[in-house]
TrEMBL record:
<feature type="region of interest" description="Disordered">
    <location>
        <begin position="143"/>
        <end position="177"/>
    </location>
</feature>
<dbReference type="InterPro" id="IPR023296">
    <property type="entry name" value="Glyco_hydro_beta-prop_sf"/>
</dbReference>
<protein>
    <submittedName>
        <fullName>Uncharacterized protein</fullName>
    </submittedName>
</protein>
<comment type="similarity">
    <text>Belongs to the glycosyl hydrolase 43 family.</text>
</comment>
<keyword id="KW-0378">Hydrolase</keyword>
<dbReference type="InterPro" id="IPR006710">
    <property type="entry name" value="Glyco_hydro_43"/>
</dbReference>
<keyword id="KW-0326">Glycosidase</keyword>
<dbReference type="Pfam" id="PF04616">
    <property type="entry name" value="Glyco_hydro_43"/>
</dbReference>
Length: 177
C-alpha cells in the first residue's frame, strides 16, 4: 500500500490518498476516494497530508500527518490517529469512510460497470434469496481488544455520564488530549 498527498498543501483541498499493488514494484491502482480530507474530518482537521505510518507503544498502527492549526490557517501542526484495515483497505479513526459494495464480498450478485458510480463500478442483480454484500468494518476503540471467549463484565447500576467536547473522537494535534 502506498500513501500519498495530493493537491496544494496551502489550502483545505490538500488530502491523503492511497494506492494498492500486489507487490512493492507495482503496478499500483489508485483508490476511488481519498483516505483523509478536510471533509472526511468534518473540518476538524483541515488539509491533512504529509503522512507516515508508525507503530504505537501498544503495538497498534497509527498514522501521523500534518494539517492546518485549529485556530485558522496560520501554521501546520502534527496530528495522529489510529489506523486500521477493513477488507484490506485503510481506515483512519475520526475520518469518515466510504464503503463500496464492489470492494466487499459479493455473493450471487454481479459487479458491473456503472457510469457515475464512485469508481465506475456498482453491484447489481441482487435478486436472489442468497444474494448479499458483506463488508469488514474497522471500528477503532480506546479499550484494548477483547480476546475471543473473554468474559463480559456487567456494567454497574450507575453509569458515569461523560461530557462530550467539540472534536471528541477525532484526531487531535499532537500533544493535545
Amino acid at each position: 500500500m502506498l500513501f500519498y498527498s495530493a493537491d496544494f498543501y496551502d489550502g483545505h483541498r490538500y488530502k491523503t490518498g492511497y494506492a494498492v499493488a500486489g507487490s512493492l514494484t507495482g503496478p499500483y491502482t489508485k483508490a476511488a476516494a481519498p483516505l483523509m480530507t478536510t471533509e472526511t474530518f468534518d473540518g476538524a482537521v483541515r488539509g491533512p497530508g504529509g503522512q507516515d505510518v508508525v507503530t504505537g507503544p501498544d503495538g497498534q498502527d497509527r498514522i501521523v500527518f500534518h494539517g492546518w492549526s485549529p485556530d485558522g490557517m496560520r501554521r501546520r501542526v502534527m496530528y495522529g490517529a489510529d489506523l486500521g484495515f477493513a477488507g484490506g483497505y485503510p481506515v483512519v479513526r475520526g475520518s469518515k469512510v466510504v464503503y463500496q459494495a464492489e470492494n466487499a464480498r459479493v455473493n450471487h450478485a454481479v459487479i458491473r460497470d456503472a457510469v457515475g458510480a464512485l469508481d465506475g463500478r456498482a453491484v447489481g442483480h441482487i435478486d436472489h434469496a442468497d444474494s448479499f454484500v458483506e463488508f469488514d468494518v474497522f471500528a477503532a476503540s480506546q479499550r484494548p481488544p477483547r480476546t475471543p471467549g473473554a468474559v463480559r463484565q456487567r456494567l454497574p447500576e450507575r453509569r458515569r455520564r461523560r461530557r462530550r467536547r467539540p472534536g471528541d473522537g477525532l484526531a487531535r494535534p499532537h500533544g493535545q488530549r
